[in-house]
Hints:
Strand content: 15-25%
Radius of gyration: 34 Å
Shape: globular
Oligomer: single chain
Number of strands: 30
Distance between the termini: 70 Å
Bound molecules: ligand ANZ, zinc ion
Amino acid sequence: MAADTASNDVADGRVPDYDPQSVEARWQQRWRDEGTYEIDNDDPRPPYYVLNMYPYPSGPAHMGHVRNYTFGDLIVRYKTMQGHGVLSPMGFDSFGLPAENAAIQSGIHPRVFTEERIPQLTSSITRIGAVYDWRRTVASHTPEYIRFTQWIFLRFLERGLAYKRKAAVNWCPGCQTVLANEQVLADGTCERSGDLVEARDLEQWFFKITDYAQQLLDDLELVDWPERVVTMQRNWIGRSEGAQFSMPVVDADGEPHESAARVEVYTTRPDTAFGMTYAVLAPEHELALTVTTPEQRDEVEAFIAKARSTSEMDRLSSEGAIDKRGVFTGSYLQNPFNGEPVPLYLADYVLVTYGTGAIMAVPGEDQRDWDFAKAYDLPIIRTVQPPEGFDGEAYTGTGPAINSAGTTITGDELDLNGLEMAEAKARAIDWLTANGIGQDRVNYRLRDWLLSRQRFWGCPIPIVYCTSCAGLDGNGAVPVPDDQLPVIAPDDVEFLPTGESPLKHHEGFLRTTCPQCGGEAMRETDTMDTFVDSSWYFLRFADPTNEDLPFSQEAVDHWLPVDQYIGGVEHAILHLMYARFFTKALADIGVAPSDLREPFKRLFTQGMIRLGGAKMSKSKGNLVAPEEILDREGADALRLGQLFVGPPADDVDWEGVGIEGTHRFIGRLWRLAHPASDAVPEATGDAAVAVDKEAHRLIARVSDEYERWSYNTAVAAFMEFTNLLYKQGRTDFAVDSLLLLLAPMAPHVTAELWELRHGTHVHEQAWPTHDPSMLAVDSVTMVVQVKGKVRDRIEVSPDISEEEARALALASEAVQGHLDGEPTKVIVRPPNIVNIVP
Ligand code: ANZ
Ligand code: ZN
C-alpha cells in the first residue's frame, strides 16, 4: 500500500501538522500486511534472536509492557537495518491463577477469560508500533502447546528427571483443599476461610534440577548478564564446601544408645569441631523420636507439632523467642574429635531439607548457635582466636585455631591449635577421612523443583493411576502414552468457592482406562506450575508449527541461544533458573542440540516505573494508561518519552516522562524533513560541509549509544542535532542520517518521512556509517577559568600544545581584568580547559 500523501502536498511550503493517529495506524497495518518482520528459518542473513519475556495476558498493556516492548522493538529494527535476519516472536503465558480466581468469582471459564484478554494485549502491543512475526505466536494454554509440555514431562520422567515423592503442602482444613502460597496470609491463615493453614504431606511431582546444580553455577560464565542477576542465581544455587561426618548417639556417660543410631552432620567449618558444645536435629529428622528418651517424649512431640505449622521463612528468621525454638531429646552425640558427649536437641532453625538435616553446634563461631546456647544455658568454647579488642558474640572471621587439641575417639592426638582456618579445615577433613568417620562434601542450597499444583488452570500432568498395575511408584502411576496427548482439562466444570480444583469432581475427566492393562484408572488431577510452560517457549518459537516434536534440532540450532533477552528483574531467579535447567536437560536427552548450554546469551532487566514514589500498579491505583497517550500524542512520542527519561536499567519516575517535549520534537522533525516544507532552508557552501560533518559525528555517536543501550543520550543527541539544523540549515545527507538513526526508536514518523522523500521503506535501509575522516574537528572551545569561574571562551585547534594554551589564556583581556600580577598557579588541560589561580 502506498502512503496517502495527497493531503500533505501543499504549494506554499507550509505542511499540515503531523497527524500521528492516521500515520501510525497506516504503518502498523502495512508492517503486518506486508509481513515486514516475518522471518523464515532458511533466511540467509546472519540470525539474531530478540525476545521479550512472554507476557501473562492480563488485558491491555500497561506502562511496564510499553517500556519493555519499546526496548525489544528498537533492537529488532536496529539489528534488521544492520543486516541481520531477526527473529522477533511474541506469545502468551496464558495459564495461571488470576484466570482461575476470576472463574471462581464470576463463573466464567478461565479459557474464555484468557482468550478475551489476548487480543486486548495484542492490540495494545501493536499500537505502540512493536513488530513481531505473528505467524509464530504460541500460547501456553493451547492444545498444541499442552501436548508438547506434556511430551517433555514424559521424556524427563523416562530419564529420572521427573519423579514423585511426598512433600509438605499448604492444607486448609476449612476449605479441605491445598492452597497456593499466594493464598496463605502472612499470619499463616487461609485468605478465604481464615483457618490456620497446616503443612500436609502429599504425593507431589518434582523435577530433578539439583542434578544440574554445578552446571547451572559453572555456565554462568557463558552468559553476558547483569552482574546482580548472576549473583542472585549464584546465591540461589548456594554452593558451599565442607565436611559430612557421623556421630554415635550416646547417653550422658557416653554409653551407646540402644538403637545404635548414628547422626550425620554437615558443616562448613570442620575446623571448629573442638568447640561443639551441643548438636541439633531438624524437628522433622527421621531419628527425632528414636533418640528421644521416655522422660522427654511429651515435650518433644509437642515441639515437633508446633514446628510443622511454622513456615520455613519464620523458622529461619532470627526474630521470635529463641528460647521456645528448641527442645532437649534426652540423648547425646559423641564428638569424635575429643570423645565428649554433647547434648542433642531439636531446634527449628535447622531445616530437614538442607545438608543432612542435622548439625554440630559451635556457638563460639556461629551466631545462631550462640543465641541458642545463651537461651539454653549451654557452654561456649571459642576455637578461633578473635582479634584483639573484639567484643562481639560469635566470631566468624579468620584467625589461628585455639582450644582445638585432644585425644580423639581412635586414640590419636589431634592438634589444630595455631593453624589458620583453611589449613585447620583441611586437617580436620583428612582426619575424618583417614578414620572412616566422614569426608569432604559439597552442598547446594538449590532444591528440586516442586512442579505439582492442585489447580485447574494449568497444564495437566499426563499420568493415570491404575487400580491393578504397580506403575512407576508402586501406587499405579502410569504415564499417558505420546499418542494420547494432549490431556486437556474439560470445559464443563463448576468452580467451587473453596478454590478446590474442579478436576477432582469431574467424573468424565477422572475416569479413564489404563494404557498398560486396559483396566480402570483415574487421572492425575495435579497440573504443572506455570514456570514449566515458560521454561521452553523460547525453543518453540524457533519452530512453532512442528507437529511431531516440540521443535526440531535444526531450527533451534539456527536461532538459539537468544541473542538478547529482555524482561523484568522479578524473574531474575526462578524463571531464568528453570529455563536454563530445561535447556540443559533437553540438550542432554537429545531433544535440543547437545551443544546448547545456555538459552539466553545476553539479558537485559529493566527498572521499575514509579508514580508518586510508588510502583505504578493496579493495586496502588496509580496507573497511567498508555491508551490516552496513544490517542493523543501517539506511539512515537510515547516511545521517545520512555527512552528519554533515563538509562534503561534504572527505575524511572513517570513524572519525569515528558510526552509534550517528545511530541513537539516530532513536530519539528516533520517540518524539517517533509519534502514540501520550507521550515528549514537548505545549507550551502561551507555551512553545508559543516552540517554534514556534524551528521557524521551524530552517526558515530548514536551507533555507539545503540550498542551500549544508552538510548536516553541518543534521544538527546537527536534533539540537539535537529536544533542545529534549524539554526544552520539542512542538507539531504544530514536529514536522511537523522531519519535512519531515529527509525528504530520512532518507527512511524521516520517511515512516513522517508517514504515521502525517497519512496522506499526506511526500515529496509542499511544502517548508516560515518566517514572517519569527517570526524576531525577544526576547532574546539577552550574554557578559561579564573579561580574556578569561567571568564573567557577561546576557539583553539584541537591539538593545541600546553604552552600555547597557557599563553593564549593569560593573554586574554577578559582574564587580565581578573588578575593583578603573576598567577600563583595555572592548570592547563588542553584543548578544553585552563584554570588560573591568582
Ligand atoms: C558448624 C559451624 C560452625 C557452622 C561455624 C557454621 C559456622 P552453608 O554455608 O549455607 O552451607 N547447617 C548445616 N545444615 C543445616 C541445616 N539443615 N539447617 C540449618 N543450618 C544448617 O551453611 C552450612 C552451615 O550451616 C553448617 O556449618 C551448619 O553450621 C549449618 F562456625 O557447622 B556449621
Ligand atoms: Zn493398569
